[in-house]
Amino acid sequence: MTSATLEDDAAHVLVVDDDRRLRALLSSYLMKNGHRVTVAATAAEARTFLDGLAFDIIVLDVMMPGETGFEFAADLRKRSQVPILMLTARGEPQDRVLGLEIGVDDYLSKPFEPRELLLRIGSVLRRTRASPFGKPEAAIVRFGPFAFSLERGELRAGEEVVRITEREREMLRLLCASPGDSVSREVLSGLGGAAQERTVDVLINRLRRKIEQDPANPAYLQTARGTGYRLIADG
User: Fold this and answer.
1) pLDDT tens across 186-211, in order?
2) Which domain holds residue 26?
3) Same domain, 154 and 221
């Protein structure tokens, strides 16, 4: 089910959830707030839509009959970098780590307010839609072939935008704000605690795979032994 035609630049959201009432609620709410919406009850139905339509973001439930949201997201990431916002009733740290390892952009725990979902969708879309820097040189941190805009939260390799998730972007902002200085795992996690620090290590490894020629021997995103990590910038 898709929404009627809206503005030409309206974001197209794919909502994947086996809860019929929640699908109807989110479809109505998101359309009222200017989005195009397509809904699917299963991963298989979502794939059918993805074969013929382009989406700006996927809102994906974790617990679905048959193929779970985790399984669907992992398979999708093999061929697509469309942003994924995952809905979950499971708040365990290991589930969040799994989602981050897969490449999910953001999490929202059930139950939630539709307004919060709308704001999170807007945040992810602002960060993932490519646009030129157009900002003063001082707002850009360069390391090797890469440039990161602190203002836009945008990472580029030359003229090409490098796809990073919202969590990776937040972490890169902290590292680029003080290039060369050690940033602790506690600061990078935002919350502290062993579970969150484990999440930091997962995100660092993912970032290294995107920016390092040899992730096992990083030139830019280095470990500050005993404390955290540092970004080595040019100049």
Assistant:
1) 888 764 444 467 788 889 999 999 99
2) 12-128
3) yes
